[in-house]
Write a structure and sequence with these properties.
It contains twelve helices and eleven strands. The chain is of the alpha/beta class and 288 residues long. α10 (220-231) crosses α11 (235-243). The two termini are 25 Å apart.
Protein backbone atom coordinates (compact mmCIF):
# COMPACT_ATOMS: atom_id res chain seq x y z
CA UNK A 1 0.00 0.00 0.00
CA UNK A 2 0.96 3.62 -0.34
CA UNK A 3 0.75 6.22 2.41
CA UNK A 4 0.20 9.73 1.08
CA UNK A 5 1.62 12.63 3.06
CA UNK A 6 0.50 16.19 2.48
CA UNK A 7 3.30 18.72 2.34
CA UNK A 8 3.41 22.49 2.00
CA UNK A 9 6.28 24.91 2.48
CA UNK A 10 4.93 26.48 5.68
CA UNK A 11 5.42 23.27 7.66
CA UNK A 12 9.22 23.03 7.85
CA UNK A 13 9.46 19.47 9.16
CA UNK A 14 7.27 18.02 6.40
CA UNK A 15 8.93 20.25 3.81
CA UNK A 16 12.34 18.75 4.56
CA UNK A 17 11.00 15.25 5.14
CA UNK A 18 9.66 15.28 1.58
CA UNK A 19 13.22 15.87 0.34
CA UNK A 20 14.81 13.11 2.37
CA UNK A 21 14.45 9.32 2.33
CA UNK A 22 13.47 8.86 5.96
CA UNK A 23 9.73 8.33 5.48
CA UNK A 24 10.28 5.54 2.96
CA UNK A 25 12.98 3.97 5.12
CA UNK A 26 10.70 3.88 8.17
CA UNK A 27 7.66 2.60 6.27
CA UNK A 28 9.39 -0.06 4.18
CA UNK A 29 9.50 -2.67 6.99
CA UNK A 30 5.71 -2.29 7.26
CA UNK A 31 5.24 -3.03 3.57
CA UNK A 32 4.27 0.56 2.80
CA UNK A 33 5.50 3.03 0.22
CA UNK A 34 5.31 6.83 0.40
CA UNK A 35 3.59 9.26 -1.95
CA UNK A 36 3.66 13.04 -1.53
CA UNK A 37 0.85 15.46 -2.20
CA UNK A 38 2.18 19.00 -2.58
CA UNK A 39 -0.22 21.86 -1.96
CA UNK A 40 0.13 25.51 -1.13
CA UNK A 41 -2.24 26.34 1.73
CA UNK A 42 -2.15 24.56 5.06
CA UNK A 43 -5.64 25.86 5.90
CA UNK A 44 -7.02 23.26 3.46
CA UNK A 45 -5.50 20.33 5.34
CA UNK A 46 -8.65 19.15 7.13
CA UNK A 47 -10.67 18.90 3.94
CA UNK A 48 -7.86 17.20 2.03
CA UNK A 49 -7.54 14.59 4.77
CA UNK A 50 -11.28 13.97 4.85
CA UNK A 51 -11.65 13.54 1.09
CA UNK A 52 -8.76 11.08 1.01
CA UNK A 53 -6.34 13.25 -0.95
CA UNK A 54 -3.73 12.36 1.64
CA UNK A 55 -3.54 10.45 4.92
CA UNK A 56 -1.26 12.53 7.13
CA UNK A 57 -0.40 16.22 7.28
CA UNK A 58 0.83 19.06 9.41
CA UNK A 59 0.17 22.76 9.98
CA UNK A 60 0.31 25.33 12.73
CA UNK A 61 -2.19 25.59 15.56
CA UNK A 62 -5.23 27.07 13.82
CA UNK A 63 -6.03 24.70 10.88
CA UNK A 64 -6.81 21.64 13.03
CA UNK A 65 -9.20 23.75 15.10
CA UNK A 66 -10.99 25.02 12.01
CA UNK A 67 -11.00 21.47 10.63
CA UNK A 68 -12.89 20.27 13.70
CA UNK A 69 -15.27 23.23 13.47
CA UNK A 70 -15.96 22.30 9.84
CA UNK A 71 -16.84 18.75 10.83
CA UNK A 72 -13.66 16.96 9.77
CA UNK A 73 -12.85 13.96 11.95
CA UNK A 74 -9.15 14.41 12.62
CA UNK A 75 -6.74 12.94 15.15
CA UNK A 76 -3.73 14.73 16.59
CA UNK A 77 -0.62 12.53 16.29
CA UNK A 78 2.32 14.70 17.42
CA UNK A 79 3.47 18.29 17.84
CA UNK A 80 6.71 20.19 17.65
CA UNK A 81 8.31 21.76 20.67
CA UNK A 82 7.20 25.38 21.19
CA UNK A 83 8.62 27.81 18.61
CA UNK A 84 8.87 31.16 20.45
CA UNK A 85 11.03 32.81 17.77
CA UNK A 86 9.15 31.49 14.74
CA UNK A 87 7.27 34.68 13.95
CA UNK A 88 6.60 38.22 15.06
CA UNK A 89 4.05 41.01 14.82
CA UNK A 90 5.99 43.85 13.23
CA UNK A 91 5.31 47.58 13.19
CA UNK A 92 7.44 50.44 11.91
CA UNK A 93 10.23 51.50 14.21
CA UNK A 94 9.18 55.13 14.48
CA UNK A 95 5.46 54.72 13.81
CA UNK A 96 2.50 55.42 16.09
CA UNK A 97 1.84 51.80 17.10
CA UNK A 98 3.50 51.23 20.47
CA UNK A 99 1.18 48.66 22.06
CA UNK A 100 -1.33 46.06 20.87
CA UNK A 101 -4.13 48.39 21.97
CA UNK A 102 -2.87 50.91 19.40
CA UNK A 103 -3.86 48.50 16.61
CA UNK A 104 -7.51 49.44 17.09
CA UNK A 105 -8.96 50.66 13.81
CA UNK A 106 -5.89 49.55 11.85
CA UNK A 107 -5.24 47.00 9.13
CA UNK A 108 -3.07 43.99 9.92
CA UNK A 109 -1.60 41.70 7.29
CA UNK A 110 -1.33 38.05 8.27
CA UNK A 111 -1.81 34.49 7.08
CA UNK A 112 -5.55 34.31 7.72
CA UNK A 113 -6.48 30.84 8.91
CA UNK A 114 -2.93 29.98 9.93
CA UNK A 115 -1.36 30.04 13.39
CA UNK A 116 -1.10 33.79 12.85
CA UNK A 117 -4.86 34.13 13.31
CA UNK A 118 -4.52 32.43 16.70
CA UNK A 119 -1.64 34.74 17.63
CA UNK A 120 -3.44 37.94 16.66
CA UNK A 121 -6.79 36.93 18.13
CA UNK A 122 -5.25 36.08 21.49
CA UNK A 123 -3.07 39.20 21.56
CA UNK A 124 -6.05 41.44 20.81
CA UNK A 125 -8.20 39.62 23.36
CA UNK A 126 -5.55 40.27 25.99
CA UNK A 127 -5.64 43.96 25.14
CA UNK A 128 -9.42 44.12 25.40
CA UNK A 129 -9.91 44.20 21.63
CA UNK A 130 -11.63 41.89 19.18
CA UNK A 131 -10.21 40.36 16.01
CA UNK A 132 -13.60 40.63 14.34
CA UNK A 133 -14.58 44.13 15.47
CA UNK A 134 -11.53 46.25 16.21
CA UNK A 135 -9.04 45.64 13.37
CA UNK A 136 -9.18 44.85 9.67
CA UNK A 137 -7.38 41.58 8.94
CA UNK A 138 -6.07 41.18 5.40
CA UNK A 139 -4.12 38.40 3.74
CA UNK A 140 -0.40 39.00 3.73
CA UNK A 141 1.42 38.86 0.42
CA UNK A 142 4.53 39.97 -1.43
CA UNK A 143 3.72 43.65 -0.80
CA UNK A 144 3.06 43.40 2.94
CA UNK A 145 6.50 44.56 4.03
CA UNK A 146 6.43 47.51 1.64
CA UNK A 147 2.94 48.53 2.74
CA UNK A 148 4.02 48.41 6.37
CA UNK A 149 7.09 50.54 5.73
CA UNK A 150 4.99 53.05 3.78
CA UNK A 151 2.53 53.35 6.66
CA UNK A 152 -0.36 51.94 4.65
CA UNK A 153 -1.03 49.15 7.13
CA UNK A 154 -0.65 49.16 10.89
CA UNK A 155 1.18 45.87 11.35
CA UNK A 156 2.35 42.71 9.65
CA UNK A 157 2.87 39.21 11.05
CA UNK A 158 5.99 37.77 9.47
CA UNK A 159 7.78 34.46 9.80
CA UNK A 160 10.75 32.56 8.51
CA UNK A 161 13.13 34.13 6.03
CA UNK A 162 10.82 37.11 5.45
CA UNK A 163 11.02 37.99 9.12
CA UNK A 164 14.79 37.59 9.16
CA UNK A 165 15.10 39.79 6.05
CA UNK A 166 12.87 42.53 7.46
CA UNK A 167 14.85 42.65 10.68
CA UNK A 168 18.15 42.67 8.81
CA UNK A 169 17.00 45.61 6.69
CA UNK A 170 15.95 47.56 9.79
CA UNK A 171 13.25 50.16 10.25
CA UNK A 172 10.80 47.72 11.83
CA UNK A 173 10.13 46.85 15.45
CA UNK A 174 8.83 43.65 17.00
CA UNK A 175 5.62 44.53 18.78
CA UNK A 176 5.14 40.90 19.78
CA UNK A 177 7.16 37.78 19.15
CA UNK A 178 5.22 34.57 18.83
CA UNK A 179 6.38 33.21 22.17
CA UNK A 180 4.98 36.25 23.98
CA UNK A 181 1.47 35.04 23.19
CA UNK A 182 1.24 31.40 22.05
CA UNK A 183 3.45 28.31 21.99
CA UNK A 184 3.19 28.22 18.17
CA UNK A 185 3.80 24.55 17.63
CA UNK A 186 3.79 22.61 14.40
CA UNK A 187 0.86 20.21 14.69
CA UNK A 188 0.70 16.86 12.90
CA UNK A 189 -2.66 15.18 12.38
CA UNK A 190 -4.40 12.51 10.36
CA UNK A 191 -7.78 11.19 9.34
CA UNK A 192 -9.33 9.20 12.21
CA UNK A 193 -9.67 5.94 10.28
CA UNK A 194 -6.03 6.08 9.23
CA UNK A 195 -4.74 6.98 12.71
CA UNK A 196 -6.79 4.33 14.50
CA UNK A 197 -6.38 1.50 12.01
CA UNK A 198 -2.66 1.96 11.36
CA UNK A 199 -0.98 3.10 14.58
CA UNK A 200 2.18 1.31 13.42
CA UNK A 201 2.33 3.52 10.35
CA UNK A 202 1.72 6.65 12.41
CA UNK A 203 4.52 5.65 14.79
CA UNK A 204 6.87 5.11 11.84
CA UNK A 205 5.98 8.51 10.43
CA UNK A 206 6.70 10.19 13.75
CA UNK A 207 10.13 8.57 13.80
CA UNK A 208 10.70 9.88 10.28
CA UNK A 209 9.63 13.38 11.35
CA UNK A 210 12.19 13.42 14.14
CA UNK A 211 14.89 12.14 11.79
CA UNK A 212 14.10 15.02 9.41
CA UNK A 213 14.28 17.49 12.30
CA UNK A 214 17.61 16.01 13.39
CA UNK A 215 18.95 16.42 9.87
CA UNK A 216 17.99 20.10 9.65
CA UNK A 217 19.42 20.80 13.11
CA UNK A 218 22.72 19.23 12.03
CA UNK A 219 22.78 20.82 8.54
CA UNK A 220 21.18 24.29 8.84
CA UNK A 221 23.20 25.82 6.02
CA UNK A 222 22.40 23.04 3.55
CA UNK A 223 18.74 23.20 4.56
CA UNK A 224 18.79 26.97 4.11
CA UNK A 225 20.25 26.69 0.63
CA UNK A 226 17.51 24.21 -0.35
CA UNK A 227 14.79 26.58 0.82
CA UNK A 228 16.35 29.65 -0.79
CA UNK A 229 16.67 27.91 -4.16
CA UNK A 230 13.11 26.58 -3.99
CA UNK A 231 11.18 29.32 -2.21
CA UNK A 232 13.20 32.50 -2.74
CA UNK A 233 15.00 34.72 -0.28
CA UNK A 234 18.63 34.40 0.71
CA UNK A 235 20.32 31.41 2.26
CA UNK A 236 21.53 33.68 5.05
CA UNK A 237 18.00 34.72 6.01
CA UNK A 238 16.75 31.15 5.78
CA UNK A 239 19.59 29.96 7.99
CA UNK A 240 18.72 32.60 10.57
CA UNK A 241 15.10 31.47 10.61
CA UNK A 242 15.90 27.75 10.69
CA UNK A 243 18.32 28.15 13.59
CA UNK A 244 15.49 29.79 15.57
CA UNK A 245 13.36 26.62 15.48
CA UNK A 246 13.59 23.84 18.10
CA UNK A 247 13.60 20.80 15.74
CA UNK A 248 12.05 18.43 18.26
CA UNK A 249 8.90 16.30 17.96
CA UNK A 250 6.82 15.80 21.08
CA UNK A 251 3.76 13.67 21.94
CA UNK A 252 0.24 14.99 22.20
CA UNK A 253 -0.34 15.83 25.87
CA UNK A 254 -3.18 17.19 27.97
CA UNK A 255 -1.25 20.47 28.16
CA UNK A 256 -1.18 20.72 24.36
CA UNK A 257 -4.89 19.91 24.11
CA UNK A 258 -5.54 22.68 26.65
CA UNK A 259 -3.55 25.10 24.48
CA UNK A 260 -5.66 24.13 21.50
CA UNK A 261 -8.87 24.43 23.51
CA UNK A 262 -7.95 27.97 24.50
CA UNK A 263 -7.32 28.76 20.83
CA UNK A 264 -10.62 27.19 19.81
CA UNK A 265 -12.53 29.16 22.45
CA UNK A 266 -10.96 32.45 21.37
CA UNK A 267 -11.54 31.76 17.66
CA UNK A 268 -15.16 30.83 18.29
CA UNK A 269 -15.63 33.87 20.48
CA UNK A 270 -14.59 36.23 17.69
CA UNK A 271 -16.63 34.35 15.09
CA UNK A 272 -13.67 32.96 13.15
CA UNK A 273 -15.01 29.41 13.50
CA UNK A 274 -18.75 28.71 13.21
CA UNK A 275 -19.21 26.55 16.28
CA UNK A 276 -17.53 25.58 19.52
CA UNK A 277 -15.29 22.51 19.41
CA UNK A 278 -13.76 20.21 21.99
CA UNK A 279 -10.15 19.65 21.03
CA UNK A 280 -9.88 16.59 23.27
CA UNK A 281 -12.22 14.85 20.81
CA UNK A 282 -9.41 14.87 18.25
CA UNK A 283 -7.50 11.99 19.83
CA UNK A 284 -7.36 8.35 18.83
CA UNK A 285 -9.76 6.02 20.56
CA UNK A 286 -8.40 2.93 22.29
CA UNK A 287 -8.88 -0.27 20.31
CA UNK A 288 -11.70 -2.43 21.67
Amino acid sequence: MSVTIGVHSNNPTLYYLSRLDYAQEELAPLGETVAWHHYTSGVRTGGLLTDGTFDFGGTGSTPPVTAQADGHDIVYTAVSAPRPEHGALLVTEDGPIRTVADLKGGTVHLGIGSWQTHLLSKALHGAGLSYSADITPEYSGPDSERLLREGKIAAWIAQGAELAAARRTGGVRTLLRTGDVITDRSVFFARRDFAEQRPDVVAALLTALQRADDWVAAHPREAAEIAAADLGGTAEDWETSLRALPWRIEPVTDAFLAEQQEAADILHGVGFIPRAVTTADAVAREAA
